[in-house]
Amino acid sequence: MKPTELAALVANTDRINAVLSKALAVVLDDRDTYALSEMLYKLDVKPEDVRSTVYNFQVKLKYDVPAINSLIVAFIRSEAEETVKITANGKKHEYRLKVLGIEIPSVVLKWTKVSGSNDVNVKMNGNISIPNYVANGSAVIQASLLNPFGGKAKVIFKKEVTLIHSS
User: Measuring CA to CA, which residue among 94, 92, 99 is closest to residue 111?
Assistant: First the structure.
């Protein structure tokens, strides 16, 4: 899947479960490759049976989800690498984040200004700018990972930036 497709998938638990169910059916159907699939076939275990078992585990582990999400956010925070494209003679910076070489789609990130000059404008997509009449401006910016399950966004990147208008 493309990063934007994965982002849309992560934002929808039902879609995640649908993909997992399809993948499970494919693996269980491949009895030549997987000995476990052959054994489950001989025991007349259907993909729906395995999916039901997995669902029951998910229900039992529902209180572990916040802990798992925290681990995921901590991993992303530790591996996030910024890229910045500077344009308009230094007046515009376009920030993006990558994890393990894969760009995090902007639809799952929210960029904000934490503090700094009123002249520094930070858009939600990571585009930062100063007006033409301003020589320079500094701000602390951050990127937060949106929670697909409805909780608070988690900060995964924070940095002080300075934009300098160089003619």
Answer: 94
**What pLDDT is recorded for position 48?**
85
Cβ(47)–Cβ(28) under 8 Å? yes
Give the residue carrying structure tokens 């259907």.
46
DSSP sequence for 13-80: HHHHHHHHHHHHHHHHH-TTT-HHHHHHHHTT--HHHHHHHHHHHHHHTGGGHHHHHHHHHHHHHHHE
- Measured at the CA of 165, the angle between CA 164 and CA 167, to 5 degrees, comes to 140
| CA-to-CA separations, 129 to 27, 60, 146, in angstroms, rounded | 50, 48, 23
Give CA–CA dist 113/93, Å, rounded: 13
Residue 50's CB: how many other CB atoms inside 10 A?
A: 16
Residue with tokens 């160089």: 166
Beta bridge mates, 127:
94
Q: What are the per-10-residue average pLDDT scores of the chain (167 residues)?
A: 68 75 86 88 87 80 72 87 94 94 88 95 95 94 84 90 88
Distances (CA, A) of 92 to 70, 86, 89: 33, 6, 8
